[in-house]
Design goal:
The chain has ten helices and twelve strands. By secondary structure, it is of the alpha/beta class. The protein folds into three domains: 40 residues, no CATH class; 200 residues, 3-Layer(bba) Sandwich (Glucose Oxidase, domain 1); 30 residues, no CATH class.
């Protein structure tokens, strides 16, 4: 009997990876690719630049000992940490607070709540739109409160201009006005982080960056330039967010590859059901 148990143990744990396999068909990308056309915060950051003098794409590169026609390509890229779809670490607005490399998986993943105000912004037909509390509050009346330990993303639809009109996207954004900032701080005080499809959540006339100076010192994250069309594919509640930043030591932020799982129950995890299924399937195959 002990021998049989040992064989089953070996079979189960040699195949346990199968129980971790994720169904990526339910994953939605919330990240824009990086390029030299990536919009950046005006007056603060320079655009991403690819240095041609330090880049190469050749089959005659002298760095290869035997220049026998082997092709090699690489690029030297210069950019600020806060470029493209990126996450702000607490140290961005808080001296001595946690930097990007110290963020844990528990801080980078969690349930995702999305408030979609795309139609409100579109119908306003304005070059710039300041969202107010009255635009956000109907969400909690319809879907209930924003749970603690979740991420709150706001879909303004402004990402439609991300590639087509970078100047409009950067200089005339949809953003959170003062009453909307108050609403977020009151109705979502214990969230893991706030995201928006703009260069910053606060409007440009909010010189105090109140969300940054309030949330980041608390250890909450801010995610900017979230992909609007990705959020369009997600429900108001029930999806699960996963962020994969660059892991920069001392980083105040980082470009991030970010995906949401449409059904939070399908997020990668080893479930009891998967373990039981694996055990009995292995046991049945052994009996054969």
């Amino acid at each position: 009997m002990r021998q049989v148990a040992s064989v089953i143990f070996i079979f189960v744990f040699s195949n346990i990876g199968a129980a971790f396999k994720a169904d990526v068909s339910s994953w939605v990308s919330l990240t824009y690719p990086l390029s030299e056309k990536t919009p950046v915060y005006p007056g603060v950051y320079d655009p991403l630049r690819i240095n041609p003098e330090k880049s190469a794409a050749t089959d005659e590169w002298p760095g290869i000992p035997a220049a026998d026609g082997t092709y090699v390509a690489f690029r030297f890229i210069e950019m600020y940490e806060h470029t493209g779809t990126h996450v702000d670490a607490p140290s961005h607005f808080c001296k001595g607070c946690k930097d990007e490399a110290d963020l844990t998986w528990e801080e980078l993943t969690g349930p995702l709540v999305i408030i979609n105000v795309r139609e409100i912004v579109k119908n306003a037909n304005s070059s710039s739109f300041h969202l107010q509390a009255e635009h956000l509050h109907p969400f909690v009346e319809h879907y209930g409160p924003i749970e603690s330990g979740s991420f709150l993303f706001i879909n303004t639809g402004w990402g439609d201009f991300y590639w087509t009109d970078g100047e409009k996207y950067a200089k005339e954004p949809a953003c959170l006005g003062e009453s909307a900032v108050d609403w977020v701080l009151e109705h979502a005080p214990d969230i893991l982080g706030l995201g928006i499809d703009a260069l910053a959540p606060e409007c440009g006339d909010n010189k105090s960056f109140r969300l940054h100076t309030t949330m980041l010192p608390r250890g909450q994250l801010i995610v900017e330039n979230v992909k609007s069309s990705g959020m369009d594919q997600l429900p108001p509640k029930g999806s699960y967010l996963m962020m994969f930043p660059m892991h920069l030591k001392g980083g105040t932020g980082s470009p991030v590859r970010m995906v949401a799982v449409r059904d939070s129950s399908a997020a990668p995890r080893l479930s009891l059901l998967a373990l039981l299924s694996l055990f009995f399937n292995t046991f049945a195959s052994y009996l054969k």
